[in-house]
Amino acid sequence: MEQLDEDDENIINFAIECAQYKTALRFCTKFKKMKLIETSLLPSLLDEFVNTKELIETNWMNFKKYKNRLQEVKEMKRNKSVDLYDPYYATKDSDLYSDVGSTIASSSGSGRSYRSSKNRRKHERKVASLKEGSQYEDTALIMVLHNLVTSTFELRIQVKEINIVLSCLGKDLEAITLQTSLEKTLKEMKESFKEIWSNTFTLEATSAAVAAENIPEGCSVIPQGMATLESHLRIAPVVQDLQWKLEGLNL
């Protein structure tokens, strides 16, 4: 009996370590280990609550910071374009393609050719940098903003699982706080989609990628700037509707 008792506790503790809080709660009830709820499950659950809440807040602060910086970079580029305006090039897409920065090199070169995967990897690391003032900072900002949105929306199921157990254990205030925090963050992120991934941006980024692919025969191209963005990054994140909010958890 002692061995069976120890095995039951190990199962519950393993579920807690794996953040399977609903499973742990079910096993506590099934194996009549209610004491473990107070000594093991609840402390771990509250730690998870705090960590998840802080993650949501951090993601939101970073999102605002990078979104504001993107607007600054766009404004600086617009002002620079006006300062460098030349009527001779008024009908040309000079600004778009200088921003794209596709580097075309002869494919007949020797071992120095950019064809080597090693050089390509080095180049890709240099293309998009969040360092303020870097040439393709706007590209890096788009990438990190897209990732922040995606990762934050992926927290919905995790928050739902945490809140179910919090509510079961009488921690409604914590559950309300977590759900409200995520709901507000997701709403404000989504309201920024059109500002970040505007139709103009999507068109220019797609045109840049197409231009980088349609190069003269006998040449190789190293895409730079917006031309390096994968197709899913040129548009706002596609968000799937999920039933993640618990009824009754509203302030």
TrEMBL record:
Its taxonomic path starts at: Eukaryota, Metazoa, Ecdysozoa, Arthropoda, Hexapoda
Native source species:
Pararge aegeria (speckled wood butterfly)
The protein in question is named Elongator complex protein 1
InterPro entries found in the cross-reference section: Elp1, HB_ELP1
Q: Domain named ELP1 three-helical bundle: which ranges?
A: 36-196
Q: Where is the composition biased (Basic residues)?
A: 115-125
Its GO biological process annotations read:
tRNA wobble base 5-methoxycarbonylmethyl-2-thiouridinylation
Q: What residue spans carry the region label Disordered?
A: 104-131
Listed GO molecular functions? tRNA binding
Biased segments, Low complexity type? 104-114
Q: Kindly list the GO CC terms recorded for this protein.
A: cytosol; elongator holoenzyme complex
